[in-house]
Amino acid sequence: MGPGAIIQAVVASAIALLLFFGGRSCGAASVSDDRAELKETLSACDARVDSLETSLTEMVAMYDDANAATEAAEEKAEAWRIRADDEAKLAADGRRRLQAEIHARDEELAEFKKDPTCRAQLEARLCAALY
């Protein structure tokens, strides 16, 4: 091998090394850019997840509030229903007592109409009260 061949081999090796390391540095820059882009995407995804978690937490709180309000309304409605039932029972009892009293008065009146002395006594008391 002559000195020209050796120089050619050295130059070829230098060019190969230059191309190899030059390409690696370009590749490294590309990988670095890809990493930066992936970090930005990951950061955006994290922000979206945080936003969704916040929204979900708010929705759960609203659901809990609505559920509590519904339960309170149901309890209040049940209390009103019980009160209305109790009042209806009291009214029915009062109506039965009044009906029994009216029936007893009707029987008294029937007896009074049959007895002429009671009627005369009542008329005399009425006349005394009027005069």
Question: Can you give a write-up of this model?
Answer:
- The protein has 131 residues and is an all-alpha fold.
- The protein has one domain.
- 97% of the residues lie in helices and 0% in strands.
- It is built from two helices and no strands.
- The protein has helices at 3-114, 116-130.
- The radius of gyration is 53 Å and the shape is rod-shaped.
- The model has no long low-confidence stretch (mean pLDDT 82).
Characteristic key phrases:
single chain; mainly alpha; 2 helices; 97% helix; coiled coil
Overall radius of gyration: 53 Å
Mind describing the biggest β-sheet? none
Beginning-to-end CA distance, first to last residue:
167 Å
Give the integer mean of the pLDDT values. 82
Tell me the number of strands: 0
Order of helices and strands: HH
Uncertain segments are none
In percent, how helical is the residue content?
over 70%
| Beta-strand residue fraction | under 5%
Structural class, judged by helices and strands?
mainly alpha
Q: What is the number of domains?
A: 1
Individual helix count: 2
- Cα shape: rod-shaped
User: What's the oligomerization state?
Assistant: single chain
Keywords: Coiled coil
Fold blueprint:
Elements: H1 3-114, H2 116-130
